[in-house]
C-alpha cells in the first residue's frame, strides 16, 4: 500500500448535514457487552432496567432485529398502549399517538408501519424486498441498496487490507444514510428505512468505458417522488450524487426550510497496527472558503461532538490512509458531527 495515498468516495449534493463516526470493532464489542447485561437483567425479571440496556445497545447498532424485538416485548409487558414504540424500521422513534403491542405475537396492533397513518403519502414504501445495484469501474466497486436508496458498500480495487482481504471502506447495515423531514400532514419521514424503486436502471452497471448512471425513486401515492441519481465516471473514485424532489411541493411541510441528511458509518479495521490506525481515525470537515477542521488525531476521548453553525464545504470519515467524504456542490448550510469510540474489552 502506498502510505502517502489517500483515496476516497465522494457524494456531491447541497443539503443540511449531520454526521457521526463509530469505530466498528470497538462498537461491536460494546454492543455485545451491553446486550449481555440486558439479557441478564431480562432473565432476572428486571424488565425496566433491561429495556434501558437494550436501548443503549441500539445506539451502537441500529436495526438489530433481535434487540428491537426484545424491546417491543418488554414494552408489551408494561401496558397495552404505549407512547414509545421500537420498530425494526425506526429503532429509536418516538410515536405521538398510542399504539398497542401484542406480547404474544410481538407486533404492532392497530396501525401498520407501512400504512397511510404512519407514512402519509409515502405509504407503501415502508416494506419491500431489498435489492442491490452494482456500479463499478477499474478503481472502485459500489453497491447500492434499494432499502434507503443508499450506498451499501464501497470496495477499492487497487488496495487490500493488511491480511490481503478486499479493502472495504464501509459495508452493510452498519451505515446509515438518509434524508429526514416532515410532511405537510406531520409525518416523520426517514428515507434510510424506506424502499426505493429502480428507474431505467439495471442491477449491474459497467462504468469502465463510459459514465455509469443509477436512478432510484421513492414514490408517493399522488405520483410525486424523491429521486436519487448516482453517476460514476471511468477511472474515478468520485461518485456523483444528485437529489431531486419532483411533485413534492404540497407534500413536504411548507415551514421546513432545510432537509436533514443523517450519515453514520462504522469504520472497519484496515491495518494490522490497530492502535496506530485508531489514532488517525477521525471526523474532519472543511469550512466553506476556510480551513479544514475536525477532531484532533490521537485523541483519547471516547466521545466528541461539535456544532458547526456556519457553512461547510465537505465532511469526511478519515482513517489512517483512506477517507470517505461528502462534498457539497456549493456548501452545506451547517452541521453537527460526533465521534464515538469504545475502549478495548477482553
Q: What is CATH's topology name of one domain?
A: Serine Threonine Protein Phosphatase 5, Tetratricopeptide repeat
Overall, the morphology is globular
Number of helices: 5
Structural class based on helices, strands and sheet pairing: alpha+beta
* Oligomeric state of the chains present here: single chain
**Could you give a short account of the major beta sheet?**
6 strands, mixed
- Radius of gyration equals 21 Å
| CATH class placement of one domain | Mainly Alpha
The amount of helix comes to 10-25%
Order of helices and strands: EEHHHEEEHEEEEEEEEEEEEHEEEEEE
Beta-strand percentage range: 35-45%
- Cα(first) to Cα(last) distance is 30 Å
Low-confidence stretches: 1-23, 79-111
- For the largest sheet, list the strands in their spatial order: 11-10-17-2-23-20
Explain what you see.
With 346 residues, the chain is α+β, with helices and mostly antiparallel strands. The chain is built from 5 helices and 23 strands. The protein has a domain at 28-119: Serine Threonine Protein Phosphatase 5, Tetratricopeptide repeat (Alpha Horseshoe), CATH 1.25.40. Helices cover 17% and strands 41% of the residues. The strands form 5 sheets. The chain has a 6-stranded mixed β-sheet. A 5-stranded mixed β-sheet has the order 1-22-21-18-19, with no helix packed on it. The chain has a 5-stranded mixed β-sheet with strand order 9-8-7-6-13, with no helix packed on it. A hairpin with a 3-residue loop joins β6 and β7 (140-145). α1 packs antiparallel against α2 and α2 (47-60) runs antiparallel to α3 (65-78). It is globular, with a radius of gyration of 21 Å. The model is unreliable at 1-23 and 79-111 (pLDDT under 50).
Amino acid at each position: 500500500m502506498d502510505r502517502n495515498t489517500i483515496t476516497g468516495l465522494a457524494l456531491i449534493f447541497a443539503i443540511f448535514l449531520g454526521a457521526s463516526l463509530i469505530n466498528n470493532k470497538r462498537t461491536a464489542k460494546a454492543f455485545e457487552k451491553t446486550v449481555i447485561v440486558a439479557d441478564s437483567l431480562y432473565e432476572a425479571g428486571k424488565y425496566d432496567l433491561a429495556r434501558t440496556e437494550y436501548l443503549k445497545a441500539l445506539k451502537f447498532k441500529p436495526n438489530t432485529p433481535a434487540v428491537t424485538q426484545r424491546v417491543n416485548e418488554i414494552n408489551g409487558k408494561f401496558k397495552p398502549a404505549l407512547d414509545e414504540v421500537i420498530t425494526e424500521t425506526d429503532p429509536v422513534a418516538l410515536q405521538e399517538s398510542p399504539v398497542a403491542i401484542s406480547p404474544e405475537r410481538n407486533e404492532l396492533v392497530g396501525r401498520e408501519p407501512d400504512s397511510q397513518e404512519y407514512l402519509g403519502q409515502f405509504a407503501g414504501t415502508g416494506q419491500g424486498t431489498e435489492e442491490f445495484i452494482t456500479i463499478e469501474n477499474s478503481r472502485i466497486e459500489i453497491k447500492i441498496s434499494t432499502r434507503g436508496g443508499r450506498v451499501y458498500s464501497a470496495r477499492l480495487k487497487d488496495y487490500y487490507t493488511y491480511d490481503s482481504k478486499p479493502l472495504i471502506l464501509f459495508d452493510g447495515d452498519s451505515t446509515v444514510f438518509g434524508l429526514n423531514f416532515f410532511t405537510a400532514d406531520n409525518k416523520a419521514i426517514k428515507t434510510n428505512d424506506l424502499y426505493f424503486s429502480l428507474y431505467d436502471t439495471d442491477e449491474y452497471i459497467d462504468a469502465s468505458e463510459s459514465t455509469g448512471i443509477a436512478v432510484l425513486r421513492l414514490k408517493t401515492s399522488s405520483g410525486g417522488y424523491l429521486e436519487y441519481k448516482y453517476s460514476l465516471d471511468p477511472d474515478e473514485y468520485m461518485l456523483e450524487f444528485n437529489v431531486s424532489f419532483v411533485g413534492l411541493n404540497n407534500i413536504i411541510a411548507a415551514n421546513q426550510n432545510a432537509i436533514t441528511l443523517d450519515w453514520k458509518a462504522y469504520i472497519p479495521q484496515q491495518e494490522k497496527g490497530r492502535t496506530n490506525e485508531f489514532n488517525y481515525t477521525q471526523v474532519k470537515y472543511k469550512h466553506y472558503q476556510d480551513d479544514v477542521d475536525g477532531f484532533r488525531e490521537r485523541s483519547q476521548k471516547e466521545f466528541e461532538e461539535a456544532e458547526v453553525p456556519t457553512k461547510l464545504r465537505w465532511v469526511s470519515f478519515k482513517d489512517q490512509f483512506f477517507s470517505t467524504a461528502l462534498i457539497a456542490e456549493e456548501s452545506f448550510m451547517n452541521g453537527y458531527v460526533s465521534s464515538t469510540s469504545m475502549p478495548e474489552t477482553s
